[in-house]
Amino acid sequence: MGSSLAASRDFFDHTLVLPIATEPKTFNVLVAQETSSTEVAQYLFEGLTEFDPRNGEILPRLAESWEHSPDGLRWTFHLRKGVRWSDGQPFTARDVVFTFNDVIFNPAIPSSASTARVTATTASRDSGALRSESGRSDQVMAPS
Length: 144
Hints:
The chain is α+β, with helices and mostly antiparallel strands. It has helices at about 1-15, 35-40, 95-105, and strands at about 50, 60, 65-70, 75-80, 130-135. A 3-stranded antiparallel beta sheet has the order 3-4-5, with no helix packed on it. It has a two-stranded antiparallel sheet with strand order 1-2. The radius of gyration is 18 Å and the shape is globular.
């Protein structure tokens, strides 16, 4: 009986359990439109930033800091160091570039974000800095 209780605690310590009315139609946060999908997808992916609904502030997530040009058309995101994927590989600006080019801007994947115009670069291979410029390009460019 004791081992069953221990197994139960371990299960809930490492398992996301959500009460939802219906099964999600997708786990892709970019195309999720109905509540059953968005409720689950929000827990699966980390964004560059996060909106705090309590005070309206934008909080850092995968981006540790950012700045923008005076006209608001150019944004530079500085990525957190030491972030790794579940397979142990480091998270880089190239991963963000992939997300924009192969997912968000992919015409085969309908997304409300696909109309954005963004370009990107990095400060160096080790320290990722992602720059987005509104109205400049419909693709994110790979870092050098």
